[in-house]
Amino acid sequence: MRLLGNRNHSGMGGRIWIVCGLVAAMCAFLAGAMRSAAGTSAGAPAASPAPSKTTLDGVFTDAEAARGKTAYNNACSACHMEDLSGSGQALPLAGDAFMDIWEGQTMNDLMGLVQGTMPQDKPGSLPPDTALDIISYILQQNKFPAGHDELKNDPDALKGILITKKAASAAAPSK
Q1: How far apart are CA 142 and CA 57, in angstroms?
Q2: Fewest CB atoms within 10 Å of the CB: 71, 79, 95, 151?
Q3: In whole angstroms, what is the distance from residue 125 CA to residue 46 CA?
Q4: What is the pTM of this model?
């Protein structure tokens, strides 16, 4: 079967784009995980301080999540579905499936993936504020509490927010 130069529009091209998008997303996720691990190894540059907040601390606002719902419906719902349940190769963005992937990662990791690889048909096209609004909506749909301050496009601040469903005392290792 000849794939290169094939102009048959039977859906094969769409599947290839989906696979490419998934590979790019996983690479971005793994790169973030490797950067995090490398920062803790001996001889590595000083690692960022441990996150000081968690997603349980109300790190987004309801207004931000409302804007995010509109942006999500325009840019994300075709693949991830309106209810965030995922479809085919588009991973779920709510519930246990979301937490299985993101538990223990930082908001900066999530921001890097969303802004760098989404939407699949135009990766990197989301402005930072729109990506943060969408992330706020995803957090809201995952039943995280809203707070008084919006997420800011500040990598250091985003690195300071841990994605977790565990209370801060449970998330921190005891000595």
Answers
A1: 14
A2: 95
A3: 32
A4: 0.71
